[in-house]
Amino acid sequence: xxxxxxxxxxxxxxxxxxxxxxxxxxxxxGTFTADTGLLADPTELWACARPCR
Length: 53
Prior knowledge:
- The chain is mostly beta strands.
- Helix content is about 10%, strand content about 25%.
- The chain contains 1 helix and 2 strands, in the order αββ.
- It has one helix at about 10, and strands at about 25-30, 45-50.
- The chain is elongated and about 30 Å long.
């Protein structure tokens, strides 16, 4: 996953950063930090509860 391409809704945990589905049940992917972009500060990313990829 390219952390610099994560969209605002994905960084906020509203959409899956893997498949872009709206999150209704989720699982943590962990905390990530990128050099630039929305994840320049440590941010926990959430993905679909059932693996989507």
